[in-house]
Amino acid sequence: MVADMVPVDIAINVTLAAAWEVATKNTNLKIYHSVSSKNPITYDILRTANFGHGDSERMETTKCIAVQWFFLVKNKTMFCLYSIWYHVIPAFFIDIFLQLTGKKPQLMKIYAKVYNVNKSLMPYCVEKNILFTSNNVDEMWDSLDPVDKRLFFFDLASMDWQEFWLYALKGLRVYILNDPMETVPQGIKHTRKMWIRKMVFDSIIWITFSYLAYIIFRNIF
């Protein structure tokens, strides 16, 4: 499945280049839009980019509050069931814990927003692979000299998505989470602890649901 994404800096460079072209070439009114259809990023690339950098490029952070868990589901019904199991149920219990400790519950509200976004985008951006064209942007790229191409890069056809996500994850870790790369060893230990918590939590949930199913089945039959 294609995840037709365009990095924001690419969109900015296209905007700057389009302003230059319109101002200097007196062209007729054009529509400029940047798409990755010629070199699309897929959800499988996103998955491998998040998990496939190996020991030399570990990204675990001490600021992480949940285990990184990403797998692809093509069936819509299974997607909904997995969302309930991995998102709604944990969020429900975590919000209860937050309430009991005097803190404001928030995860259920967050996942409600995520659900609404998915509901809006899924029929158009996830369930369908749409091929876009960007002839005006392609022509504009070809008209730039080598220096401008280096300074205002927006050629998604030559984008290395694996490399892009490697730097994007580093940027998120260092500049958004304010967690320097030097703390990766601590992040690895933190992630291991969260995996243990996740397995314990999943085991408790599975045992609870299995027991309830057994009780219901026994009472019926």
Automatic annotation (TrEMBL):
InterPro entries: FAR, FAR_C
Domain Fatty acyl-CoA reductase C-terminal: 86-179
Membrane spanning residue stretches: 84-101, 199-217
Transmembrane as UniProt keyword: yes
GO biological process entries: long-chain fatty-acyl-CoA metabolic process
Top-level taxonomic group: Eukaryota
Keyword Acetylation part of the UniProt annotation: no
Alphabetical keyword list: Membrane, Transmembrane, Transmembrane helix
GO MF terms, alphabetically ordered: alcohol-forming very long-chain fatty acyl-CoA reductase activity
GO cellular component: peroxisome
Listed name of the protein: Fatty acyl-CoA reductase C-terminal domain-containing protein
Organism, as annotated: Homalodisca liturata
